[in-house]
Design brief:
Blueprint: E1 13-17, H1 22-34, E2 38-43, E3 58-62, H2 69-77, E4 81-84, H3 91-96, H4 98-119, E5 122-126, H5 158-177, E6 181-186, E7 189-190, H6 207-216, E8 221-224, E9 230-232, E10 234-235, H7 236-248, E11 257-261, E12 267-269, H8 270-281, H9 288-292, E13 296-299, H10 301-304, H11 320-326, H12 334-347
């Protein structure tokens, strides 16, 4: 059984499962910098946590949350707010290993949710923009938009279906059994720590990282189905700022609510993303020659991901809830986001280098 440090009992303690992930690591850094909360982090590794390790208000446990349920329950008992951020979130695995996705994304999260209910802890749960699926609405509303998924044979939708079921379970526990909760739905968060652009696996890394990796290594940029699908790209710092407001929950404003977190003003096709990346590489003298040689080609979804792949053409959030209730709006435009990502990977500039 793990032992927790004695911390200030007057300060709120936040438990982040998946603290070394893309959102988790940025959230730890933001909470330490801008709040006085005590933070407990759990993950299999700590490579993204950098200089926050060893900080007075941050306690980190390197362990498998699935295999150590008793320890996780103890961590939940010792916390005020729980964020279960552990999940498989890559489309290639939805198609190639859907059972693994189910076991990690659904089974392990149900356990944590029930622990929060049992010990009367607030859960701030990461839903996903993917729950809307192929919804025909111009902008997706948290309370009125329909959630439209594809046929069973299109295994790509297992992730969306899992998240939707967890949303419904949390909502039911909240309305009928007193669970304190907030759901948030990230829309295509991007940033420096999304993936390592120098160590990717075709089809498994997120699209912006894969494209940058291919430019660096002289490989063609592959646009699935022509890259015509559009997304609203949201810079990680903007997204995490909104999550912090949800955690702070001023006057209980976030209780029992769902929030889209995205940037509807920055909708771009995947093809545009590829073109902007190539142009951005040209602005770095040491890498301009690679940009000149970059090749963009089209592949089918079945060829790239497998026969179980299907996708939504657009995914635009309505963010009125976040604006009106939390006072949040995104600030970072698409090209600035790309520059920050490339500055980090190509020049070693790190906005989170120290506190």
């Amino acid at each position: 059984m793990i032992e927790f440090r004695t911390m200030n009992s007057e300060k709120k303690r936040i438990l982040i499962l998946g603290a070394n992930g893309f959102i988790g690591s940025s959230l730890v850094w933001k909470l330490l910098k801008e709040t006085d909360y005590e933070i407990t982090g759990v993950d299999l590794s700590d490579n993204k946590l950098g200089c926050v390790l060893g900080r007075e208000r941050f306690e980190f446990f390197k362990m498998d949350a699935i295999k150590n349920k008793a320890d996780i329950e103890e961590a939940v008992k010792n916390s005020d707010v729980v964020l279960p951020l552990i999940a498989v979130a890559t489309p290639a695995l939805y198609v190639k290993d859907p059972v693994r996705v189910y076991n990690l994304d659904f089974e392990s999260n149900v356990d944590v949710i029930r622990m929060c209910l049992k010990h009367k802890k607030r859960v701030v749960f990461p839903s996903t923009s993917e729950v809307y699926g192929m919804c025909p609405d111009e902008a997706f509303d948290e309370y009125s938009s329909t959630l439209v998924l594809g046929p069973i044979e299109k295994e790509r939708w297992i992730y969306s279906c899992i998240k939707q079921m967890l949303d419904r379970l949390i909502w039911a526990y909240g309305n009928h059994e007193g669970l304190q909760f907030t759901l948030f739905r990230p829309f295509n968060f991007i940033g420096p720590r999304l993936d390592d652009i120098r160590a990717t696996k075709e089809g498994s890394s997120r699209v912006i990282t894969q494209f940058a990796h291919n430019i660096l290594n002289g490989k063609p940029i592959k646009l699935v189905n022509g890259g015509l699908q559009k997304r609203c790209f949201t810079y990680i710092d903007d997204g995490v700022e909104c999550i912090v407001k949800i955690i702070q929950n001023k006057d209980g404003c976030a209780d029992g609510r769902i929030f889209n977190i995205g940037n509807p003003d920055e909708e771009h096709s995947v093809k545009e993303l590829a073109e902007v990346l190539v142009e951005s590489f040209r602005q770095y003298p040491d890498y301009a020659a690679l940009a000149e040689k970059a090749v963009i080609e089209t592949v089918s979804g079945d060829e790239y991901y497998g026969a179980g792949y299907q996708d939504a053409q657009r995914r635009v959030p309505s963010i009125g809830q976040a604006k009106n209730i939390l006072g949040w709006t995104p600030k970072t435009d698409f090209k600035t986001s790309i520059k920050k990502i490339l500055d980090y990977h190509l020049l070693g500039k790190d906005d989170e280098a120290c506190l």
